[in-house]
Amino acid sequence: MYVAVKGGERAIESAHAWLAEERRGDTDVAELSIAQIREQLKLAVDRVMAEGSLYDPDLAALAIKQSRGDLIEAIFLIRAYRTTLPRFGASDPVDTGAMACDRRISATFKDLPGGQVLGPTFDYTHRLLDFKLAADGDVPEAPTRESVPGDVPHVTEFLNREGLIEEAPRDDTPPPDLTREPLGMPADRALRLQALTRADEGFTLGLAYSTQRGYARNHAFVGELRIGPVAVEMEIPELGFAIEIGEMTLTECETVNQFKGSKTEPPQFTRGYGLVFGQSERKAISMALVDRALRWEELGEDNVGAPAQDTEFVLYHADNIQATGFLEHIKLPHYVDFQAELELVRKLREDAISAQVPEAAE
Amino acid sequence: MKDTFDENAERKAWMGLLAKAPEGRVAALLDAAMSRPEFTWLRAPEIGSTMVRGRAGGTGAPFNIGEMTVTRCALTLASGEVGHAYIQGRRKSDAEAAALVDALMQGSNASAVREAVLDPLEAERFAAKTARAEKAAATKVEFFTMARGED
User: Fold this and answer.
1) Chain B residue at shortest CA distance from A97
2) What residues 6-45 of chain B have any CB closer than 8 A to a CB of chain A?
3) What does the pLDDT look like over B91-147, one tens digit per residue?
């Protein structure tokens, strides 16, 4: 029997109206502006841009306001908006070697050209709540020092004279794009990196941590971590040359990993790579560790059956919008499905009881 | 390729500068200097996206990082010059101002436009970049070796 069910409209409208009111909260408290979110909750904005896969700080701030700070909901809004935009083209690959580094550190080489630049980091803070922030927002100006202009070369570039670190030779193969073609297996490294850079931070962190704890351990060191703006260039067909169309902050992490060699590769340090929108260093490091774990096949390593080595498992579960969409749909009406299940269970029970009755009578 | 003379280098430089200018800044500088010339749209301002790419390992095979919002437009001045703009973000009026400056830079008024719009933009950008670089430089670690009393 099919029963059409209507009648939720009024309830839904009221729910949305109340949501709007709850979003605003106590009207005696000043309303948040988009600019305040963009400037003061910057790392949340960066996460929404990275996992929403669209670099636009104002839109990400708006999404955070609309979602009441639920970042996955905000990412969902950004993903939905993204699909409405016509695609003008693809940029030339960004040159992270020309990044104006706000932060640039290496955990493997102490003295390196360009130096260890800490930048605006939480590292070395004591993680004690600062009640002064609750009282007033005045901050003294940060100290300055004369800077040396010029690009900061990548660590691996000038420390690989011995050839002990795996090279990343230039290659101009056009990459696959999972926003155009559904994600399919086998996935090459370019596709894996695209999936990982927009993957859920928590999921990526958990997988990366699992490799550190011994599930496909690959002994990662942070060879280099850098954060800062890079220029984005695109070929403009009507001009016939490339121009800079903007600038974005990226976080890049290169790991160097111990590698004993395999049937195909000599002993050397191999590399994992993370590159993420915004200031997102936990995510970038996680991405590099998971990237390295997923490279087992091309490096001729053994598959030890660890979750982080399973490309299909990692890539098909890393997207929080796909995951939350499927997970949360089970709270929506399943009355008919459930009615069928109910009928089935009743029938099974009846059968089980009637099967027992003759025994009980004996 | 980098060693060869690039005949478009100047235009590339100003278009890049216009694309990265803060919101409203190009229009403010342009309008303070001159009245806007007559023009017709070749392509009215349009908001879209560009897929941004990186390279595996920084130098290897390209991959897609994600998109960025971009506004583009193209126009023709009454005097015939064609101006283009591709600028970051969703900023139609900024794209219009950038395309106007691009067109004006190809005409007889170029040096006045450079002085009124591009030079201040460049100076402001340089100052902002320098201020940030100087803060970063102040966080550079200076290692020193402590003498250990073992020998």
Assistant:
1) B58
2) 6, 8, 11-12, 15-16, 19-20
3) 999 999 999 999 999 999 999 999 999 999 999 999 999 999 999 999 999 887 666
Does some domain include residue A349?
Answer: no
Nearest CA in chain A to B141: A116
pLDDT in tens, A310-320: 999 999 999 99
Contact: B57, A102; criterion CB under 8 Å: no
The complex's ipTM works out to: 0.91
Neighbours of A111 (CB within 10 A): 8
B128 within 8 A of B25, measured Cβ to Cβ:
no
The span from the CA of B14 to the CA of B12, in Å, is: 6
Does residue A355 lie in a domain region? no
Q: Smallest Cβ distance to B141: which of A115, A178, A193?
A: A115
Dump strand ranges (E) for chain B.
Answer: 39-55, 62-77, 82-88
Q: What is the pLDDT of residues A325-358, one digit of tens each?
A: 999 998 888 888 888 888 898 999 999 988 887 6
Q: Spell out which residues of chain B touch residue A91, defining contact as CB-CB under 8 Å.
A: 50-53
Q: Are A116 and A204 part of one and the same domain?
A: yes
One-letter identity of residue A45 = V
Q: Name the nearest CA neighbour of B23 among B68, B114, B88.
A: B88
Same domain, A195 and A280: yes
User: H-helix or E-strand containing A225?
Assistant: strand A220-236
Do A161 and A269 share a domain, yes or no? yes
The answer to whether the beta carbons of residues B41 and A30 sit under 8 Å apart is no
How far is Cα A337 from Cα A343, in angstroms, rounded to an integer? 10
A293 and A220 in one domain? yes
Domain that holds residue A197: 96-120+151-167+178-324
- Asked if residue A261 lies in contact with residue A227, where contact means CB atoms within 8 angstroms, the answer is no
Q: Which helix (H) or strand (E) holds A311?
A: helix A311-317
Phi (first) and psi of residue A336, to 5 degrees: -70, -45
How far, in Å, CA of A63 to CA of A56, rounded? 11
Instruction: Please tell me whether residues A78 and A160 are part of one structural domain.
Output: no
Q: Assess contact for A285 and A103: CB atoms under 8 A.
A: no
Give the number of domains in chain A: 2
Contacts of B48 in chain A (CB under 8 A): 85-88
